[in-house]
Amino acid sequence: MAKVRVALAGVGNVASSIVQGVFYYKDAPEDSKVPGLMHVKFGPYHVGDIEFVAAFDVDERKIGKDLSEAIFSPPNCVPKFAEVPKLGVEVQKGPVLDGVAPHMRDFRYGEGFRVDDDRPSVDVADVLKEAGADVLVNLVPVGSYQASRAYAEAALEAKVGFVNGIPEFIVSDPDWGARFEAAGVPAAGDDFKSQLGATILHRTIAKLAVDRGLKVRETYQLNVGGNMDFLNMVEEERLKTKRISKTEAVTSLIPYKVGVRIGPSDYVPFLGDRKVMYVWLVAEQFGGFPVYIDVKLSVMDSPNAAGVAIDAIRAVKLAKDRGLAGPLVEVSSYFFKHPPRQFPDDEARRLVEDFISGGK
After folding, report:
1. Interhelix angle 345-357/198-211, nearest 10 degrees
2. Does residue 238 share a domain with residue 332?
3. What is the DSSP letter of 322?
4. Which H or E run contains 161?
5. Would you say the pTM of this structure is higher than 0.85?
6. CB 76 within 8 A of CB 349
C-alpha cells in the first residue's frame, strides 16, 4: 500500500500531536468517524498510511534522538495520548536563522530553547531527497520569517510538497505561489485553522451575525496558553503576522470595517498545552439596540491543530500524485487561516470534498 512520506520542520507540540495522532488512529475502520479528520481515508490514503521519514529541530534536547523520543522531550508539554514505537528517524539540526527569538534563549520568562550555535545544520534539501519525502510540514516558531522561507526553498529544490502550518505568508504570497507552480510542487497554507479553535469559532459567530442582518460594531479575541508557542509570542515583534492572519480570517467574512483586536495576549506557564480563548462581539439589531456576545473556549492547543494537519498532508500528497502544482486554493481555504483566497467555511469544505473526489 502506498505511503505518505512526511518530513517535519520543528518537533514541537504540534509535531508531537501529529505523530501521536497517526498511531492513535492507525487502525481506525475506514468507515468510522474520527474527531478532527474529514475522513479516515482521505482519497486513497488512510491516516495510518502516513510515514515519518525526516525531522528537523534546533533544540539540543531533541537533536540526535529518534523522533519517537524527541516528541516527548522538553520543552514539549502536550500530554501523551498514544504509544509511538521507535521510528528509525533521527532528528537533525535544521537552520536556526531567526527561528529562535532572543527571549527564548535567555530564559527571562522561564522555559525556552537550548541551542548549540557551534553544531552545524544539515542541508535540508539533501535530507529530503535522501529520505524520499513526499511532503514537508513547516512547524517552526511564529515569527520565523527567514527559517520558514529556508524550508520552503528546500521543498522547492527537493520537489517535495509543502504544508505551511504557521503564519508566515508563503503559500498565500503570489510570488511564492508562482514559484511553487513553476517548480511543479503543490503547496498548502498558511497558518493552520484548528479543528475547533479561536479562529473558527470567531468566524462562525461573525458570519452568523452578518447573515442574520446584524451590524457588527466591535469585536475582540484574546488567547492565553502555556506552551512554547505562547512563550515565543510574548514579544510583540514575533506575532505581527499572527495578528494579521487571525484578524483577516475573521474580517474577511464581514463586508465592512469594524473595530477589531485579535491575537495572543499572554503566556501562563501552568496551563501547559491548554489554550483559553475569549471572544467578545457587539452588534446592532433591529431598532438600533445592541447585542452582546461573550464566549469562552478552552481546548488542548496542539491536538486541535493536528487533525487538520493530517488532512492537509494527505491533500498535498494527493495533489502531488495528480501532478498538480502551486497553491491548492480550496484546500488552503478550508484548513488554513490565511489562504491565497478566503471562502466561507461551509463552501470551502464542499470544495475540498470535490477535490478529494477528483473534481476541478
Report:
1. 110
2. no
3. T
4. strand 161-164
5. yes
6. no
